[in-house]
Amino acid sequence: MASEVNADALTGKALLKKVKDLEHLSKEEKAKACGYYTVTKNGVERVNMMKFLNALIDAEGIQLDSTQSGNGRGGRSASYRITVQSNGNLLIGSAYTKQMGLKPGDEFEISLGRKHIRLKQITEDGEEIDMDD
């Protein structure tokens, strides 16, 4: 199983500059040089072209989705997909918590299914709010 793309993978203007500087290399070599590769547990390096190409699209400011975020600012939009990190954690990003109107300190009860996780928000008085609504 491969680990996450390197934490120091280039993004934004730094990514665009590096790609331009490496114009003589293949796209796979560019992706690897910019940090878009993983190392398997067997020590095999694998280039993650999809993440590299998506980062290039983001860096160029190209809007592929027909819907835009209502805040008028840049940044990531919710993809509704997350990946288990190398330390075993699942990180739910701010795009989701902002969309749901959650605030720091909000509490949830976690219930686990076979292949799903359900969150129920707990109010100040201890009442549960089902997040499916």
From TrEMBL:
It comes from the Bacteria. InterPro entries: AbrB-like, SpoVT-AbrB_dom. The keyword DNA-binding applies. Pfam families: AbrB-like. Keywords: DNA-binding. The keyword Ribosomal protein does not apply. Residues 79-124 form the SpoVT-AbrB domain. This is AbrB family transcriptional regulator. It comes from Almyronema epifaneia S1.
